[in-house]
Amino acid sequence: MLIPKTMQAVVYRGRDDLRVETLPVPKIRSGELLVKVAVCGVCPTDIKKIHYGTVPSPRVFGHETSGTIVQLGAGVKGFRVGDRVGLHHHIPCMKCHYCEHRAFAQCAGYKRTGITAGFEPAGGGYAEYVRVMPFVLGGVVRIPARNSFLEGAMLEPVNTVLKGVRRLSLLRGDSVMVVGQGPIGLMFTRLLKLRGMKVLATDMMDSRLKLARRWGASKVFRADDLNLFDKIKSAAPRLDAAVVAVPVDAAVQQALELVRGSGQVLLFAHTRPGDAAAIDLSSICMQEKDLVGSYSADYTLQKEAARLVFSRQIDMRQIISHEFPLEQTAAAIALASKPTPDSLKIVVKQG
Q1: Does domain 168-293 have CATH number 1.20.1440.80?
Q2: Helix H or strand E segment including 317
Q3: Is it true that domain 6-159+297-349 has CATH number 3.40.50.1010?
Q4: Inter-CA distances, 122 with 116, 137, 154, 326, 331, Å
Q5: Pairing of strands 219-222, 198-203
Q6: Ramachandran area for residue 324 (φ above 0: left; ψ -120 to 50: alpha; else beta)
Q7: Cβ(171)–Cβ(190) under 8 Å?
Q8: Running along the chain, 351 residues long, what does each successive block of 10 average in pLDDT?
């Protein structure tokens, strides 16, 4: 394949400052891949970094990425030019103390980003080409012929949700409340339903609650209902767990009150450093309730995530609401950060 010398990329230059620029196409080294990007999803963690300026510039963000292999570095085996692939940007070392405890996101090796379009590696999916380094090749997955690049780009977010579900100690038939039915909340609703849970879904938008029903929620509730607490209690007197998929402190407090003794509350969206909230510590001690977190993906679950997506047991095509061209990445991020009733998963698509 003919590979140009330069490409278009969306470069983060500081807080809320994204610019379409011309960059050199990354040069790969031995053991690496060069991938022409087809689709990159918009992820809330990148949105927060852009809005709050929490990382130095310049960078090219975007890590929910799929595309076509256009060049192989020396020694690469198991892949061919022309393969359509979904990428995975973090791989743990599998040898350290954290990895021995399956706390992969805390591994120093895991915190290295293995995909870049230039500058400090930051995913690079908001560019025409990305360089994929050797230490993350284990997470690269071929996209089956019947599946789309859109589906291939969704492996990473589905993986993160699958990891979160695995953090909960649940039995088939248990009741779980999922707070927030944005793209992440809907994925939780679907995966929990697939595992035989009774799912109660809350959100501020009726359109999302309607889709939550289709994706497996047995009951749905408006989050702004003044009688929400009593309605949840009535629907699930012994609520076994709650997933808080929105960064709302009040939702955490309410979830801790609603779950039964020894129940669990999973935080998935509280990723902004410095956020603090008061909690009733006796609920953790005397009532033995667990407040747990889950962050990022688990590459050991990549095959299962791929099976769920490519079999369409979780049909991600149904929640991709908007596709933006690369030059409109800033608009895509703006919409994802302030969702409307008709917006769900936002992607940047090329070609």
Answers
A1: no
A2: none
A3: no
A4: 6, 16, 18, 17, 20
A5: parallel
A6: beta
A7: no
A8: 94 97 98 98 94 94 98 97 97 96 95 96 97 96 98 97 97 98 98 98 97 98 97 97 96 96 96 85 95 94 97 97 98 96 97 75
